[in-house]
């Protein structure tokens, strides 16, 4: 399971009869019991809470404006 605090993610797709998708991300401390993301209202009101993604683009918080 991927938490919203992850900063690196790599995925690959291969078609060999069926489509296979594999993703890898760095292991960090256990986050058991922590929600995997912070629910928003879709209007970017919470972007200021994310110092690394303070801008709003397409109703998502983004590092770039």
What's this entry about, in short?
The protein is mainly β and 65 residues long.
Helix and strand topology:
Layout (H helix, E strand, L loop, with lengths): L9 E7 L1 E7 L30 E3 L2 E3 L3
Antiparallel strand pairs: 1-2, 3-4
Give helix % range.
Answer: under 10%
According to DSSP, the number of beta strands is 4
What fraction of residues sit in β-strands?
25-35%
Question: Which overall shape is indicated by the principal axes computed on the Cα atoms?
Answer: extended
Low-confidence stretches: none
Major sheet characteristics: 2 strands, antiparallel
Number of separate domains = 1
Q: C-alpha Rg, in Å?
A: 15 Å
Class per helix and strand makeup: mainly beta
Identify the quaternary structure here.
single chain
What is the spatial order of strands in the main beta sheet? 1-2
Total of DSSP H or I helical runs spanning 4+ residues: 0
Mean pLDDT: 76
Q: What's the SSE pattern?
A: EEEE
Rounded to the nearest angstrom, the distance between the terminal CA atoms is: 28 Å
């Amino acid at each position: 399971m991927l938490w919203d605090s992850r900063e690196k993610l790599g995925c690959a797709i291969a078609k060999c009869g069926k489509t296979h998708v594999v993703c890898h991300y760095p292991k960090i401390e256990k986050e058991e019991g922590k929600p995997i993301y912070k629910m928003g209202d879709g209007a970017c009101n919470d972007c200021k809470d994310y110092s690394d993604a303070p801008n709003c683009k397409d109703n998502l918080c983004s590092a770039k404006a």
